[in-house]
């Protein structure tokens, strides 16, 4: 079955907007359930970590360059580099390393 | 002491309504939006490279980013669409990857002054992202939506245009450059998860476990046959669920500290 890109876009947009708008409009009270609260607290870190590795070493032409970019990115973020600095740093590492690998 | 005093001052001085338009507040938002827009532009470029692989035209990519304003959510959806996913699967991955915005909106909802007109909530909800949430919540006192609008005015177009350009340039740039740019998105993810991991040891452990299990699942027979997006959903629910049972967050943490 083939899918329509515009329906994909509509589905994504609808879900994204609903997630943000529901707490601002309907559910105005803080979430009291401790499990849901904890679950929602951990979800972002887990999702992003799962999505980052091993994908980052598969995204580059040479896996080694991706691995070094991961280490550099973690170190830069650890020492307080901004979003732009971390992202640009990772790109620069891959760009330079792939000259040699 | 001194710095604390200065932090509290605007709150004390604040008189009348917090939601009034003022050129200064709007310009403050634009000023703080500049570095965010810059980062978004670089990162969305690599998002565009993924969008192109999923078969999106530059205009469609522009539309996705303009309507979603979500890095991980869009990327995960593109990965699924590449594998010809159903609309339902795309809805689920968008929900999971963007679940953190639910929490951020909950926190923002507490900061609206009661007299703020309702439509501001609908507009602010358009662009709740890690970075825009960060600068909005960092301001003392009740939320002035015009501050956030100033930042959105720069950040949202940068995100959407970067995505479209990424789709166009993915064809034109040499492979080596595309290879380098494609890690920008992961750099952004690291910039989001590593600073909290430094402060909270449980988060740090979870990040390491997530890396390890994600790596394992991408090679394990059976599980590795599932699409990347499906694996992300399963792993996120399993790991976060286990963590929520084993290490429930302390109740005070997310509650109104007023």
UniProtKB/TrEMBL annotation, chain A:
Going by the entry's taxonomy, the superkingdom of the source organism is recorded as Bacteria
Record has Membrane as a keyword: yes
Any single Pfam family the record assigns to this protein: AzlD
Q: Does the keyword Transmembrane apply?
A: yes
Q: Which InterPro entries match?
A: Brnchd-chn_aa_trnsp_AzlD
Which residue windows are transmembrane per the record?
Answer: 6-27, 39-57, 69-97
Q: Which UniProt keywords apply?
A: Membrane, Transmembrane, Transmembrane helix
From the Swiss-Prot or TrEMBL record, give the protein name: AzlD domain-containing protein
Q: Which organism is it from?
A: Faecalibacterium tardum
TrEMBL record, chain B:
Q: Which UniProt keywords apply?
A: Cell membrane, Membrane, Transmembrane, Transmembrane helix, Transport
Topology in the lipid bilayer is annotated as:
Multi-pass membrane protein
Q: Listed GO cellular component terms?
A: plasma membrane
Query: Which lineage ranks, top first, belong to the organism behind this chain?
Result: Bacteria, Bacillati, Bacillota, Clostridia, Eubacteriales
UniProt key word 4Fe-4S:
no
Q: What is this protein called?
A: Branched-chain amino acid ABC transporter permease
UniProt main location, coarse: membrane
Record carries keyword Membrane: yes
Name a biological process GO annotation: L-valine transmembrane transport
Q: Where in the cell is it found?
A: Cell membrane
| Native organism | Faecalibacterium prausnitzii
Family of this protein: Belongs to the AzlC family.
The transmembrane segments are: 33-55, 75-97, 146-169, 175-195, 202-221, 233-249
Cross-referenced Pfam families = AzlC (PF03591)
